[in-house]
Amino acid sequence: MRDTRTELLIQAETLVRSRGFAGFSYADLSAAVGIRKASIHHHFPTKVDLGAALVAAYDARYAEAMEAIRAASTDGPGRITAYGKLYLGGVEQGLGCLCAALAIEGEALPERLRNDIVVFFRKHLAWLEQVLREGVADGSLRTGLDPAMHARSILATLEGALLMERLFASPAAFGDTLSALVDRVSAPARAVSDLIASGRQL
């Protein structure tokens, strides 16, 4: 059985990912969990405290997942595909990315949360840059890729695809976008490279 704090975080995350940070109140959370608002304030004195805890928990889950991807996948395309599939659950559940849902509120969001979100996305960009750098080095990704530029492109593409396919309720279309994204950065098939190197016509 989950403790009250954990249940509050789970329900609050769903509310933020479906409605946005400004779109729910402690009254909504109270109804979802079935406890009094005073009990919520015991765990999270302010809504900003709750938001910060949500981002920290979300960040920890992603960090664990990305570490597992690096351990399980040995090449760039495999790692990028596995990373992209982390977003697929949001499409299937009709939920957006927590940090994107917060970021979209811009200046209306408390500065503490804006800073936490910046840190979250910088970690993802750094992880993707490293994956791209290693993929170029081992020949699984295209030679000459700019890791920083393509890391931003990958992140923006996945966040955009999550937003759009969540609206259309289309996990299959998200999968197509992910496949196209991976194809765009993958090295040409070895067989094709060998044919070109040998001067043979395709």
From TrEMBL:
Transmembrane segments: none
Domain HTH tetR-type: 2-62
Keywords: DNA-binding, Transcription, Transcription regulation
UniProt superkingdom: Bacteria
Pfam families: TetR_C_13, TetR_N
Annotation: DNA-binding region: 25-44
SUPFAM superfamilies on file: Homeodomain-like (SSF46689), Tetracyclin repressor-like, C-terminal domain (SSF48498)
Identification of the protein by name: TetR/AcrR family transcriptional regulator
